[in-house]
Amino acid sequence: MAEDLSILKGTKTAQYESLVPQIKGLLEGETNLVANLANIAAALKEQFNWWWVGFYWIQEDELVLGPFQGPVACTRIKKGRGVCGKSWEIEKTLIVEDVAQFPGHIACSSFSKSEIVVPVFKNGQIVGVLDVDSEHLAHFDETDRAFLEKIVGLIP
Predict the structure, then answer these.
(1) Distance of CA 45 to the CA centre of its chain
(2) Running along the chain, 156 residues long, what does each successive block of 10 average in pLDDT?
Protein backbone atom coordinates (compact mmCIF):
# COMPACT_ATOMS: atom_id res chain seq x y z
CA MET A 1 0.00 0.00 0.00
CA ALA A 2 1.35 3.41 -0.97
CA GLU A 3 1.03 6.12 1.65
CA ASP A 4 2.36 9.17 -0.14
CA LEU A 5 1.03 11.00 -3.16
CA SER A 6 3.05 12.54 -5.91
CA ILE A 7 1.10 15.65 -6.90
CA LEU A 8 1.46 16.43 -10.58
CA LYS A 9 0.76 19.77 -12.18
CA GLY A 10 -0.18 19.98 -15.83
CA THR A 11 -3.23 19.17 -17.88
CA LYS A 12 -6.27 17.69 -16.17
CA THR A 13 -5.77 14.44 -18.11
CA ALA A 14 -2.13 14.21 -17.05
CA GLN A 15 -3.10 14.80 -13.42
CA TYR A 16 -5.67 12.01 -13.52
CA GLU A 17 -3.30 9.67 -15.36
CA SER A 18 -0.76 10.19 -12.59
CA LEU A 19 -3.33 9.86 -9.81
CA VAL A 20 -5.20 6.71 -10.88
CA PRO A 21 -2.28 4.29 -10.33
CA GLN A 22 -1.52 5.99 -7.03
CA ILE A 23 -5.11 5.44 -5.88
CA LYS A 24 -4.80 1.79 -6.97
CA GLY A 25 -1.75 1.58 -4.72
CA LEU A 26 -3.64 3.11 -1.80
CA LEU A 27 -6.42 0.53 -2.17
CA GLU A 28 -4.18 -2.48 -2.78
CA GLY A 29 -4.57 -5.05 -0.04
CA GLU A 30 -6.95 -2.91 2.04
CA THR A 31 -10.43 -4.32 2.57
CA ASN A 32 -11.85 -1.70 4.95
CA LEU A 33 -14.39 0.37 3.04
CA VAL A 34 -14.15 3.47 5.24
CA ALA A 35 -10.36 3.53 4.95
CA ASN A 36 -10.53 3.17 1.18
CA LEU A 37 -13.18 5.87 0.71
CA ALA A 38 -11.27 8.21 3.03
CA ASN A 39 -8.05 7.76 1.06
CA ILE A 40 -9.78 8.28 -2.28
CA ALA A 41 -11.42 11.50 -1.04
CA ALA A 42 -8.12 12.73 0.39
CA ALA A 43 -6.17 11.90 -2.77
CA LEU A 44 -8.67 13.72 -5.00
CA LYS A 45 -8.80 16.75 -2.70
CA GLU A 46 -5.01 16.91 -2.48
CA GLN A 47 -4.49 16.59 -6.25
CA PHE A 48 -7.22 18.94 -7.45
CA ASN A 49 -7.94 21.15 -4.42
CA TRP A 50 -11.68 21.04 -5.06
CA TRP A 51 -14.03 22.71 -2.57
CA TRP A 52 -15.51 19.42 -1.31
CA VAL A 53 -14.90 15.76 -2.13
CA GLY A 54 -16.66 12.89 -0.47
CA PHE A 55 -18.92 9.91 -0.47
CA TYR A 56 -22.52 9.29 0.43
CA TRP A 57 -23.47 5.67 1.04
CA ILE A 58 -26.95 4.20 0.68
CA GLN A 59 -28.50 3.13 3.97
CA GLU A 60 -32.12 2.03 3.65
CA ASP A 61 -33.92 4.92 1.93
CA GLU A 62 -31.26 7.63 2.26
CA LEU A 63 -27.77 8.60 1.24
CA VAL A 64 -25.73 8.96 4.43
CA LEU A 65 -22.57 11.03 4.63
CA GLY A 66 -19.38 9.00 4.49
CA PRO A 67 -15.69 9.90 4.35
CA PHE A 68 -15.04 13.34 2.89
CA GLN A 69 -12.60 16.24 2.64
CA GLY A 70 -13.82 19.81 2.99
CA PRO A 71 -16.21 21.78 5.17
CA VAL A 72 -19.05 20.11 7.08
CA ALA A 73 -21.77 18.70 4.85
CA CYS A 74 -25.36 17.57 4.70
CA THR A 75 -25.66 14.31 6.64
CA ARG A 76 -28.63 12.62 4.93
CA ILE A 77 -30.13 12.99 1.46
CA LYS A 78 -33.34 11.41 0.20
CA LYS A 79 -33.51 9.63 -3.15
CA GLY A 80 -34.24 12.10 -5.93
CA ARG A 81 -33.30 15.19 -3.85
CA GLY A 82 -30.48 17.44 -4.96
CA VAL A 83 -27.74 16.38 -7.34
CA CYS A 84 -26.65 13.41 -5.20
CA GLY A 85 -30.18 12.09 -4.75
CA LYS A 86 -30.93 12.52 -8.45
CA SER A 87 -27.74 10.69 -9.46
CA TRP A 88 -28.76 7.85 -7.14
CA GLU A 89 -32.28 7.81 -8.59
CA ILE A 90 -31.19 7.63 -12.24
CA GLU A 91 -27.96 5.68 -11.54
CA LYS A 92 -25.93 7.97 -13.80
CA THR A 93 -23.18 10.53 -13.42
CA LEU A 94 -24.47 14.10 -13.29
CA ILE A 95 -22.42 17.16 -14.18
CA VAL A 96 -23.98 20.44 -13.06
CA GLU A 97 -22.34 23.60 -14.37
CA ASP A 98 -24.32 25.92 -12.06
CA VAL A 99 -25.89 24.35 -8.99
CA ALA A 100 -28.14 27.40 -8.51
CA GLN A 101 -29.91 26.37 -11.73
CA PHE A 102 -30.39 22.72 -10.70
CA PRO A 103 -34.01 22.05 -9.63
CA GLY A 104 -34.09 21.03 -5.98
CA HIS A 105 -30.40 21.65 -5.34
CA ILE A 106 -29.49 21.18 -1.68
CA ALA A 107 -27.25 24.07 -0.66
CA CYS A 108 -24.92 22.55 1.92
CA SER A 109 -22.50 25.41 1.21
CA SER A 110 -23.09 28.73 -0.50
CA PHE A 111 -19.54 28.49 -1.85
CA SER A 112 -20.37 25.50 -4.05
CA LYS A 113 -21.00 26.65 -7.64
CA SER A 114 -20.67 23.47 -9.74
CA GLU A 115 -20.81 19.77 -9.00
CA ILE A 116 -20.24 16.29 -10.35
CA VAL A 117 -21.82 13.22 -8.76
CA VAL A 118 -20.68 9.74 -9.78
CA PRO A 119 -22.61 6.62 -8.75
CA VAL A 120 -20.68 3.78 -7.12
CA PHE A 121 -21.72 0.26 -8.07
CA LYS A 122 -20.97 -3.08 -6.44
CA ASN A 123 -22.09 -6.29 -8.12
CA GLY A 124 -24.23 -4.28 -10.53
CA GLN A 125 -26.13 -2.46 -7.77
CA ILE A 126 -25.70 1.19 -6.81
CA VAL A 127 -24.31 1.44 -3.26
CA GLY A 128 -23.39 5.11 -3.02
CA VAL A 129 -22.14 8.19 -4.81
CA LEU A 130 -18.95 10.21 -5.06
CA ASP A 131 -19.81 13.91 -4.76
CA VAL A 132 -17.39 16.64 -5.83
CA ASP A 133 -18.10 20.36 -5.53
CA SER A 134 -16.17 23.33 -6.89
CA GLU A 135 -16.36 26.99 -5.97
CA HIS A 136 -16.09 27.75 -9.71
CA LEU A 137 -18.90 27.59 -12.27
CA ALA A 138 -18.71 24.93 -15.00
CA HIS A 139 -15.64 23.34 -13.43
CA PHE A 140 -16.32 19.71 -14.40
CA ASP A 141 -16.42 18.08 -17.82
CA GLU A 142 -16.29 14.75 -19.65
CA THR A 143 -12.65 14.23 -18.65
CA ASP A 144 -13.68 14.37 -15.00
CA ARG A 145 -16.59 12.04 -15.69
CA ALA A 146 -14.42 9.42 -17.39
CA PHE A 147 -11.67 9.41 -14.80
CA LEU A 148 -13.90 9.66 -11.72
CA GLU A 149 -16.01 6.77 -13.02
CA LYS A 150 -12.77 4.81 -13.44
CA ILE A 151 -11.67 5.72 -9.90
CA VAL A 152 -14.94 4.66 -8.24
CA GLY A 153 -14.67 1.42 -10.22
CA LEU A 154 -11.50 0.67 -8.27
CA ILE A 155 -13.32 0.54 -4.93
CA PRO A 156 -13.08 -3.08 -3.72
Answers:
(1) 10
(2) 75 96 95 97 97 97 97 93 95 95 71 93 97 96 98 96
Secondary structure (DSSP) of 34-50: HHHHHHHHHHHHHHH--
What pLDDT score was predicted for residue 3?
65
Tell me if 122 sits within 8 A of 128, measured CB to CB.
no
Supply the range of the domain harboring residue 52.
12-152
Residue 70 lies in a domain: yes
Q: What is the pTM of this model?
A: 0.93
Domain count, the chain: 1
Closest of 154, 109, 155 to residue 132, by C-alpha: 109
Instruction: Report pLDDT for 56.
Output: 98
CA-CA distance, 126 to 109, in Å (whole number)? 26
**CA dist 133 to 1, 21, 118, 138, 153, Å?**
28, 23, 12, 11, 20
Q: Is residue 6 part of a domain?
A: no
Q: Is residue 90, in this structure, part of any structural domain at all?
A: yes
Q: Are 21 and 94 in contact (CB under 8 A)?
A: no
- Residue 2 in any domain: the answer is no
